[in-house]
């Protein structure tokens, strides 16, 4: 990107989709988006099974509806959060105010760390409930692969969201540096590319 501040192009510059797609936070956010689809999709699709002698379907995770509900809720909300922050990342170069950029990055840090924590809780909860499941509740082992996929991608999501928080923290360092530079040298051009 040409000129600018805080890891972004000059405010008001043209949107460069190629540069946007190559940014690490964009790639990680897209990967997190896919992981959230896998988690809630696998639970919605094959997360509810029934015994041969029953009609009502129960959650595959130890017949605990809270486990399925948690996985679906966190997956759907993480999906929406990824879309929201992808839009913010695309709009970020257009934000000219240092304070507004700082607020956007601080919210990114908080939200990403919060989602890493929620995925950690989800991974622990789903793993615990999967281990406590009884073989007689699912004699045909239906949905076992979907349950393992939900657990696996919950685990991977911890790291993608943690990396997003780390990248946002690095971006905050750039903003703080630029803010201090602008305070010391108010008439100087921007240093950061």
Automatic annotation (TrEMBL):
Belongs to the synaptogyrin family. Its main location: membrane. This is Synaptogyrin 1. It is found in: Membrane. GO terms for cellular component: neuromuscular junction; synaptic vesicle membrane. Signal peptide: none annotated. The keyword Translocase does not apply. The keyword Membrane applies. Coiled coil: none annotated.
